Amino acid sequence: MGKGRRSVSYQRSITVHRREWKESLPDACMYCKSELPPMKLDVHEIERKSHSPNRWWKITDHGRHVNGLKLCRKCHSEHFDTMPHAKQLAVKLIMDPDNFDLDAWLSIKPRPSTYVTMSEVMEYVKDLI
Fold first, then answer.
1. Separation of alpha carbons 93 and 112, rounded Å
2. In 3D, which of 22, 26, 70 has the Cα closest to residue 44?
3. By C-alpha distance, which of 39, 38, 55 is closest to 47?
4. What's the rounded mean pLDDT across residues 4-19?
5. Alpha carbon 10 to chain centroid distance?
6. Any idea what DSSP says for residue 69?
7. What integer pLDDT is reported at residue 1 of this predicted model?
C-alpha cells in the first residue's frame, strides 16, 4: 500500500475520535474565546497532517487528544499558520489542559530539531494569561 493510501486510511480511523473531542469542548474559539455554533469552529492540528501523515491525531493511552485546537475560522486563518508551536501548545495547555501532554505531542514530530520544551510553552502561557 502506498504512503498516500496509508494516510487516508489513518485519517478515516481517527475521524470519530476527532469529532468526539471537538464535541466535548465548549463551542468557543480557544484563542479569541468567541462563542460560535459548532459548524463555524474548525479543528486545527498543531503539528500539520502533511508533516506527520500517519500519526498527526495522537491519542494517548490515557485518551488525551494532544494535537488539536478548536478555533474560529478567523483565528485559524489569521494567526495559526505562522504561530510557533510553543505558543499553540500554550493555548492548548490553558484551554484544554485535560488533553495537554507535551511528551505525547513531541512523539508526533518527525524532526527532532523542531522540538519544543516546556519552558518555551510556559513563556507563552505567561504572555497569554
1. 21
2. 70
3. 55
4. 70
5. 17
6. E
7. 45
From residue 53, alpha-carbon distances to 8, 71, 122 in Å are: 9, 21, 28
Instruction: Give per-residue burial for 37-56: e unless 16+ CB within 10 Å, then b.
Output: eeeebbbbbbbeeeebbebb
Element (H, E) at 31: none
**pLDDT higher than threshold 70 for residue 50:** no
Does 14 have pLDDT greater than 80? Answer: no
Max intra-chain CA distance, the chain: 47
Average pLDDT over residues 92-108: 93
Yes or no: say if 54 and 102 are a contact pair by the CB < 8 Å rule.
no
CA 37 to chain centre: 20
Model confidence pTM above 0.70: yes
β-pairing verdict for 41-45 and 68-72: antiparallel
